[in-house]
């Protein structure tokens, strides 16, 4: 019974995942999303941004790079699994090499020695894999505190849980790590703040940026023209 | 006779190759070099007289962009219903606002970043090309940059979109402008864009 309900919910969710261009997406929950967006911006302004700013000022650059490398290294299993699921065995093999090399010679991932050894970093996740399988983004969603996503990418996050540290590390360790990852990531996007603040409509700016960035990632920087530009006006 | 035909054909094809327009990546490289040399030589004069610098950008850089096609892509479905006067006015106003928004950044950062171009493979009869480059910055990860290009009416390759880390300039403006058109119509948008490059910033205060 449970299983039947689950598959029905999944089928409904997938059927809602139409292909829409980033500038004209399916956003039926827009009023709710906008409310969440202003809540998130408030939380960011008073909590996350100040923390990320002090982090950027206080922590030396070298240590910051170590933190970024460390978390990037923990994402390699996700890259490997999804690289394989997307039919990129060579890339998955290279990412396996990265994971082994950086975890050992790179001092548990603090240093990214693999990039210098000719194995560049990739970025794959289960949402991209679903996209590669032909599933469109579906509805745009703005989640409280978690930020922008779509029906498809939300399902993807569920899959990514199993290739992340969550199931294998105790919460008392995993939660502070997740917080540090968040602060570190946020500190790298401080320079994007003025872009959002100066947009005609910050909500639409973030929505378009998120959807474009995901579309680009699904197609490894080479999205099909009709998905990218939609109605070209001719 | 046949013996002469091949060399003759070769010479002919060489001749036509020389007259042919620059390849897309060479076009971008050359344009970048030219404007950098100009800024290097005249940095003080340009900083003192912004209007002069905007005019230089208009003369040197803008011809490498397909302004009308960019305007068409940015308006998207609204381009079809726009009349000729609206199209021209919008294209011109949008071009000017872009110059005003980006020229200052260009003047400030022209020497602090290096562009590393990726080799471009292109079929001889291609009518669309994407030139990819990496912007190398000091103490910061590189930025991926792409120029979408197509042949213009004069046969030279022209840029019609700039894509920074998967974010397309055309798509960004289209979604923003679409919202504005829904609110105040196409003429309202054109007026707003014509009123100055600051329309990007003014709106922020209300948000």
Using brief descriptors, characterize the structure shown.
heterodimer; A: two-stranded antiparallel ribbon; globular; B: 207 residues; alpha+beta; Nuclear Transport Factor 2, Chain: A; five-stranded antiparallel beta sheet; VacJ family lipoprotein (chain A)
Layout: helices, strands, pairs:
The complex is a heterodimer of chains A (234) and B (207).
Chain A: H1 2-15, H2 30-58, H3 61-74, H4 76-85, H5 89-104, H6 113-116, H7 126-132, E1 140-143, E2 147-150, H8 151-163, H9 171-188, H10 193-197, H11 202-218, H12 225-229
Antiparallel strand pairs in A: 1-2
Helix pairs in contact in A: 2-9, 3-9, 4-5, 7-8, 7-11
Chain B: H1 2-19, H2 24-48, H3 50-60, H4 67-75, H5 77-81, H6 84-109, E1 114-117, E2 129-137, E3 140-151, E4 157-164, E5 167-168, H7 169-194, H8 199-202
Antiparallel strand pairs in B: 1-2, 2-3, 3-4, 4-5
Task: Describe what this molecule looks like in 3D.
The complex is a heterodimer of chains A (234) and B (207). Chain A is mostly helical and 234 residues long. Chain A is 65% helix and 3% strand. Chain A has helices spanning 2-15, 30-58, 61-74, 76-85, 89-104, 113-116, 126-132, 151-163, 171-188, 193-197, 202-218, 225-229, and strands at residues 140-143, 147-150. In chain A, a hairpin with a 3-residue loop joins strand 1 (140-143) and strand 2 (147-150). Chain B is an alpha+beta fold and 207 residues long. Chain B has one domain (2-206): Nuclear Transport Factor 2, Chain: A. A 5-stranded antiparallel beta sheet of chain B has the order 1-2-3-4-5. Mean pLDDT of chain B is 84; it is low at 14-18 and 201-207. Chain A binds chain B through residues 21-24, 61, 197-202, 204-205, 207-209, 212-213, 215-217, 221-222, 228-234, and chain B through 72-73, 75-80, 130, 139, 144, 146, 163, 165-168, 170-172, 174-176, 178-180, 199-201, 203-204, 207.
């Amino acid at each position: 019974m449970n299983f039947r309900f689950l598959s029905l919910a999944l089928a409904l969710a997938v059927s809602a995942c139409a292909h829409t261009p980033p500038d004209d997406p399916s956003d039926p929950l827009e009023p709710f999303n906008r409310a969440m967006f202003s809540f998130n911006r408030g939380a960011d302004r008073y909590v996350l941004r100040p923390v990320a700013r002090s982090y950027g000022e206080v922590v030396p650059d070298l240590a910051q790079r170590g933190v970024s490398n460390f978390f990037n290294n923990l994402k390699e299993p996700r890259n490997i699994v999804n690289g394989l699921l997307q039919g990129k065995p060579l890339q998955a093999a290279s990412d396996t090499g990265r994971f082994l090399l950086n975890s050992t010679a790179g001092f548990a991932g603090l240093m990214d020695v693999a990039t210098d050894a000719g194995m560049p970093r990739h970025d794959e996740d289960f949402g991209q894999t679903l996209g590669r399988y032909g599933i469109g983004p579906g509805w745009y969603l703005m989640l409280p505190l978690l930020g922008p996503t779509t029906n498809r990418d939300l399902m993807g996050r569920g899959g990514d849980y199993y290739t992340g540290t969550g199931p294998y590390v105790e919460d008392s360790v995993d939660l502070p790590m997740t917080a540090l990852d968040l602060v570190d990531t946020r500190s790298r996007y401080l320079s994007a703040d003025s872009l959002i603040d100066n947009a005609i409509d910050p909500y639409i700016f973030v929505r378009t940026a998120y959807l474009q960035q995901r579309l680009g990632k699904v197609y490894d920087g080479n999205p099909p023209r009709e998905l990218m530009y939609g109605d070209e006006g001719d | 006779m046949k013996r002469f035909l091949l060399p003759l054909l070769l010479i002919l094809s060489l001749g036509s190759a020389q007259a042919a327009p620059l390849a897309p990546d060479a076009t971008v490289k050359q344009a970048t070099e030219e404007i950098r040399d100009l800024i290097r030589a005249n940095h003080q004069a340009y900083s003192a007289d912004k209007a002069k610098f905007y005019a230089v950008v208009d003369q040197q850089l803008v011809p490498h962009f397909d302004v009308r096609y960019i305007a068409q892509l940015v308006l998207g479905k609204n381009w079809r219903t726009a009349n000729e006067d609206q199209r021209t006015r919008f294209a011109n106003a949008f071009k000017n606002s872009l110059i005003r928004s980006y020229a200052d950044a260009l003047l400030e950062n022209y020497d602090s970043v290096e562009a590393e171009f990726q080799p471009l493979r292109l079929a001889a009869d291609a009518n669309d090309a994407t030139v990819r480059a990496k912007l190398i910055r000091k103490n910061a990860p590189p930025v991926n940059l792409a120029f979408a290009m197509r042949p213009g009416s004069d046969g030279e390759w022209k840029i019609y979109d700039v894509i920074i880390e998967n974010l397309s300039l055309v798509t960004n403006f289209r979604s923003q402008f679409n919202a504005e058109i829904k609110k105040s119509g196409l003429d309202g948008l054109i007026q707003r864009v014509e009123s100055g490059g600051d329309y990007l910033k003014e709106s922020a205060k209300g948000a």
